[in-house]
Amino acid sequence: MNPLPGWRAAFRIARRDAVRAKGRSALVVAMIALPVLGVTAADLTYRSALPTKAEELTGQLGSADARFSATGLGPMKLQQMPDGVNWGTPDGAPDPTPEQQAKPVDVPAALPEGSRYLTERSVPASVTTRHGIADTQITELRIADPMLRGRIELTDGAYPRAEDEIAATEEFIEASGLSIGDRVTVRGPDQAYTLTGTVELPAELRADALYALPGAVIAPWQRTADRDKDILPPQATDPDWLVEGPPAGVTWQDVLAANEKGVVVTSRQVALNPPPDSEVPMAAMTGNTYDGDTELTAAALTVAAMAVLEIVLLAGPAFAVGARRSRRQLGLVGSCGGSRGQVRAVVLAGGAVLGGVGAVAGVGAGFGLTALFRPMIEDFTGRRFGELTVQPWEILGIAVLGLVTGVLAALAPAIVAGRQSVLESLTGRRGTRRGSRVLPVIGVVALAAGVAVAVYGGVNGSTNLVAGGSVLAELGVLGCIPVIVGFLGRLGRRLPLTPRIALRDAARNRGRTAPAVAAVMAAVAGSVAIATYTSSNAAEQAYDHVPNMTPGTAALMAADIGDDVELPRSRSAVEQNFPVSGARADIGRVWAGSDCSVYYEEENGCGTLEFVKPTGEGHSCPLKGKGAKELALRISADEHKRLMNSPACMDENYTMTAFGTGSDKIVVGGADMLASYVKLDDPAAAKALAEGTPVLLNPAYAKNGEVTLKAAHIYNDRDKKMRALHPGKARTTTEQLKVYVAPDRYAATPGIRMVMPRSTAERLGLHVGDYGSFYTLHRDPTDAENQAAHAALEQAGNRAYLMTENEMQRTDDDTVLLLLALFAGVVTLGAAAITTGLSKADAEADLTTLSAVGAPPGVRRSLSGFQCLVVALTGVLLGTAAGLVPAVALRLTDLRAALADMREDPMESAYTPIVMPWETIGLLALVVPVLAGLLAAGLTSSRLTLARRAG
């Protein structure tokens, strides 16, 4: 028997039913089209943003045929791979001697005959801006040459044509506040250039650089440095040669010939058409490289599977409601001799029709939106698309995926419709059906097994087991959702009318409510899992972060001994250009020698100052020395953290000198410095300083209220008088100082271990010099203020430097958490809105009865709001619980790795906290459900036209 006539009738009925129920059809089409749109746009963006090998070469070479580069090893034989990235010396070749490395390589001699070339060379520089001074990179390259097209493009103005002209990238223009026609001065040689145009690098849109003609910057800078020894010479890179070869191009034989002369070549022709391994001498030396295609494919399949699951969960109830709304029509099919298979075919045909329309609409919208937002996507990815890359089979697969998803969403409603008797279909009675008792049991078992597998994978460091267990646990929760939804009906016994009806309606219509709750749960679970892991990882990084200064402060420090005479001008420069607040705190430094020309220790230089640390409990760090490893593995993470932050271990863990106080970490200051920088607002400490008693911030160095200070007085050779008075080895003195001991928490003050009064330092025979000032900032400085302050310091003689706190950058994490919350919120709102719309369509008879018995008009509106709230809130709470499983398991994996590091070094922290993202959870659990309910109530009409009920 030919099945096609039956299917043709089924498709005709499905098409007419879709046109007749335009609202429900549009809802299903939108649910299918939106994920197809997203996957299509993601595929187009990924394929277009992922540069091909040819596009990568264009980004490196422009339209040139090759780049020839010396390696710094001198003119010795090399071997390289065809890509020009991997190279080395032949096996058994001796290492080059310093004399060989010093020999220049004649790169032009290695070029193929008949070639034309451009030279490229870069140097880091400090230049003037509209706001002040900024650091950037200057590249000497004739960018107007057609050989550079595709790599550097002019966006405004003109290319530099003279040696006193320069071009800039748009990133530099935006940061510096300059515009075309302004003058840019390179500090050092103090040579000025006219900004003639702006350029962009299509492969690197965020590049911050300047471009000048060859010989316009580096050579004049070098000549100036040769004449003036106070000017540092330019630290330029070795030049590269961009080559336009003969008509045959730069061949593999040309590359091998260049390798013989010590030159590495990146050839477009060779990279795109590499020779066989038998012709590549280095091929035998290379090892296997990591290939992430398998992992990438697995991730793509996982995302696709989750998208299909979301669509099926959301679209399935819509088809179920559609089948119930059309049950009389389906009953007529059966009464006219249609078999159960033909009834199922009608419902499945509806899924195919709407799935096909949704797939086509989604693919078309994906193309349109990608083209529309292409400039924004390019700015976000930081590179221009060479072209909009379309993989036809991938796009066709995405469309087929949408079609299949529509059919899958209609599969369960089709089976149910096929089981209904003709009498039930014609009379509209649904009958009484018990929920499955097996599914919840399977769900509980799967949930327990998934949690166990995920935890086991976390403890043993297997991310595959973590992923598998997490998916299994989520599927287990899905199996339990019908029972959970059924339980909701019992919660409304003591509630007012509309929430009670909403809960009972959700429990009575589990086939409609449970999939929507599951869809919300799936979206929220993924978002909560990533948000929890991200928040926990950020908390770990915050714990391990060691600030170089007290938060909210800035330090102005003299650059060298003798520069303190310029400190007043430098202080004025900072105070006029930086967001400082309150009074400054001036400080000094101490040293033991008679003279000192640098801040760091050197032979016959500053001398040394050091504390003699007592031994015993409270003084020696228990995480160092014998038994430290056993102790570190035995104690808890909190106890390890307490020990790491204890005074005895503080200096063992933190060796950074912050703003340059030296290894002794002694500063000369007063009570204002204690209050502003140390944040020690203690009258007793201020009184001690006034009386000449030093304030010790790290109690581990004190014993019985005293510290032992050891000074080695080394006298500089330039001080002949002091050398004559003190011949021989350095004089060493040891002093017992009575100190005021600050509480333990001040041992973590960055860069300072003790604050010493000037009178005490002079009494000990130490030398004291003004060092700088501390400032309190009322906000973080902007880029413009930083540039202005550095320019003002330059005008003040450039005899001091400015430091601010190296704050942790968490902007990316915060953005990720916000995007996750928005994604889960949108899915939650969509699923709740869909369920509410289906509830209204499915419960028209009940709403008519309510109006007939005198229910106020607002009941209809409030009922929709509570129905939406029930779905959203239930899904969010279940999703939050499910999302914690993979997050906790992954943190257990991190804990295992941290413990392995601790076994190597007991000072390494194994602190791996699990931090709940309460902002994300609060947004999803409180704001989104309430917003969904309010939107549903606000968009629902309170008026209902009574109609004659069927039957």
Folded structure, characterized:
The protein is α+β, with helices and mostly antiparallel strands. The chain has 3 domains: 66-285, no CATH class; 443-545 and 809-951, no CATH class; 546-804, no CATH class. The chain has 31 helices and 23 strands. Strands 1, 4, 5, 6, 7, 8, 9, 10, 11 and 12 form a 10-stranded mixed β-sheet that branches. The chain has a 4-stranded antiparallel β-sheet with strand order 14-22-13-23. Strands 16-21-17-20 form a 4-stranded mixed β-sheet. α28 (811-842) runs parallel beside α31 (918-938). The relative contact order is 0.10.
Give the topology, please.
Blueprint lengths: L3 H17 L1 H28 L3 H9 L4 E5 L8 E2 L6 E2 L9 H5 L13 E13 L4 E8 L12 E5 L7 E5 H7 L6 E4 L4 E10 L8 E4 L5 H10 L12 E5 L7 H9 L2 E5 H5 L20 H33 L1 H9 L4 H33 L1 H8 L10 H28 L2 H6 L10 H23 L2 H26 L8 H12 L1 H35 L8 E6 L8 H11 L2 E12 L16 E5 L15 H7 L2 H8 L2 H7 L12 E3 L2 H8 L4 H8 L4 E2 L9 E8 L6 H6 L5 E8 L1 E2 L12 E3 L1 H6 L3 E11 L5 H13 L4 E5 L6 H32 L1 H9 L5 H47 L13 H21 L13
Parallel strand pairs: 5-10, 7-9, 16-21, 17-20
Antiparallel strand pairs: 1-11, 1-12, 2-3, 4-5, 4-11, 6-9, 7-10, 8-9, 13-22, 13-23, 14-22, 15-18, 17-21, 18-19
Membrane topology: Multi-pass membrane protein
Protein name: FtsX-like permease family protein
Subcellular location: Cell membrane
